[in-house]
Design brief:
alpha/beta
């Protein structure tokens, strides 16, 4: 069902033809990079966090990690990731396929500036065997309610 929700969202935005489906797992950054044939930094991983206002997704370059002091300065709280069960229920996608497309109502979406370092990024498309090829500008266009943040550690 998550793949269908993400596909429907991307179809409305005019990007569904860019979805790639794989017979192997793309659930982790290394798996996704191997399946696609790109460097890990080009994978746009989406992490889900519990926040006072509900939950939030942060899409970031695949080779980056959350910088806890930056996160706390931006969101006024500690970075606390959702559990597998919480992600599926609150976001609408299971871990391994979490993406910013076709999420449940009320989920806040943030794009980390680390994505802007690359011409092409590959977020998941709703399941652990999918990806969609986009530029950071296209990602921003597809997600008009997303905000840019700087909450990742630098290389």
């Amino acid at each position: 069902m998550s793949l269908e929700k993400a596909t429907a969202y991307l179809e409305k935005a005019g990007y569904a033809e860019r979805i790639r489906l794989f017979d192997i797992s793309t659930a982790t950054v290394p798996e996704a990079a191997a399946a696609i044939g790109c460097e890990e930094c080009h994978i746009a991983k989406t992490l889900s966090f519990s926040q006072k206002e509900g939950c939030a997704l942060i899409v970031m370059a695949g080779d980056r990690k959350i910088d806890n002091p930056k996160y706390k300065a931006r969101f006024s709280q500690k970075a606390t990731m959702l559990s597998y069960e919480e992600a599926a229920t609150l976001v609408g996608h299971e871990v391994g396929g979490v993406c910013p497309f076709g999420v449940n109502e009320g989920v806040r979406i943030f794009l980390d500036v680390s994505l802007k370092e690359y011409d092409t990024v590959y977020p998941a498309a709703g399941n652990a065997g999918s990806a969609v090829k986009l530029t950071p500008d296209e990602l921003e266009k597809i997600l008009p309610h997303a905000s840019w943040v700087d909450v990742c550690k630098t290389k």
